[in-house]
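User: Need the bound-state model for 2'-deoxyguanosine-5'-monophosphate:
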Amino acid sequence: MEDCIFCKIISGDIPSDKIYEDDKVIAFRDIHPQAPVHFLVVPKTHVKSAAEITAENSDEVARCFEVISKLAKQEKLGDGFRVINNCGENAGQTVPHIHFHVLAGRALGGTLV
Ligand code: DGP
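Assistant: Bound-state model below.
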């Protein structure tokens, strides 16, 4: 997608603090961290949101969770972490390319879930 900021990060047109990449998934640190550790795990295929997961693209979404588990070890998140996906306007999704926030490094509290 030409005007998608995450597609531009994936192609390397926009720099990022990348912590992981394979053929299907990239992970990089969030530009506006909301916890001491805050990175985004993003499938390389442009899927707009969790509402658009299908049988054709769900393997890339599954790979995201495999990568989250790997990065939890790499980033030493043994004290726990939270995975968040914002889907759509009411949920506060600002970048329309599906992504999973991983937050850690402090007690995150019990609001919402
Ligand atoms: P969401 O609100 O769930 O769509 O989260 C989008 C996140 O993406 C937000 O926490 C800030 C982050 N973000 C937006 N633009 C950039 C960027 O250019 N680089 C990086 N590293 N993060 C970005």
